[in-house]
User: Which sequence fits this backbone?
């Protein structure tokens, strides 16, 4: 009788543990309150080719800009930085946009990129794309000779709960002959984490 009691107790305990696990386990996919607010991205077309920021193991660019993760948005004092990187072939490419904010607590608004790159750097209103490390050298060595197309802008449509949404487009041109070096179009970011 003692063995039957032990088996019955063991079976009851096993059923109890199983039923607790079954009724209290809720997979994230089954959670009715789950939404896609944790999904974030930064993407655009570079000279007509799709480009999307990736979370890279080798974050050369993020180390250069002192950012924890890419893609990201970062607000330091009155300056917004939106940055992303992606591996294209053997090169690490990067996309960076700086905008001076009138209010660092709410970045919502439209920010234009105009003039040459030297003016843009001084005005904290800069947008660049680099296909490799040499592009950064080109930008800084010829900053007064390179500029933006007239429709170059960053639009932040939402800034709440440390996340940011928006759109962007810009073209970097050789000012002497108006030739386009990089044309960035259809730019979009959603739920980009904001670092402060």
Assistant:
């Amino acid at each position: 009788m003692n063995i039957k009691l032990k088996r019955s107790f063991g079976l009851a305990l096993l059923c109890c543990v199983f039923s607790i696990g079954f009724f209290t386990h809720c997979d994230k996919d089954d959670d009715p309150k789950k939404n896609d607010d944790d999904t974030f991205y930064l993407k655009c077309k570079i000279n007509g080719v799709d480009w999307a920021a990736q979370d890279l193991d080798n974050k050369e660019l993020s180390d250069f800009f002192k950012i924890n993760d890419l893609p990201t948005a970062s607000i330091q004092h009155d300056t917004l930085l939106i940055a992303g990187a992606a591996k294209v072939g053997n090169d690490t490419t990067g996309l960076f946009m700086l905008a001076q904010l009138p209010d660092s607590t709410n970045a919502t608004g439209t920010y234009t990129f105009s003039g040459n790159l030297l003016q843009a750097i001084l005005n904290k209103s800069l947008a660049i794309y680099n296909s490799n490390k040499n592009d950064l050298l080109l930008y800084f060595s010829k900053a007064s000779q390179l500029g933006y197309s007239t429709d170059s802008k960053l639009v932040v449509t939402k800034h709440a709960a440390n996340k940011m949404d928006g759109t962007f487009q810009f073209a970097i041109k050789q000012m002497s002959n108006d030739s386009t070096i990089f044309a960035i179009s259809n730019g979009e970011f959603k739920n980009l984490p904001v670092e402060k």
Observations:
- The radius of gyration is 25 Å.
- DSSP finds four helices and eleven strands in the chain.
- Residues 1-35, 58-66 have pLDDT under 50 and may be disordered.
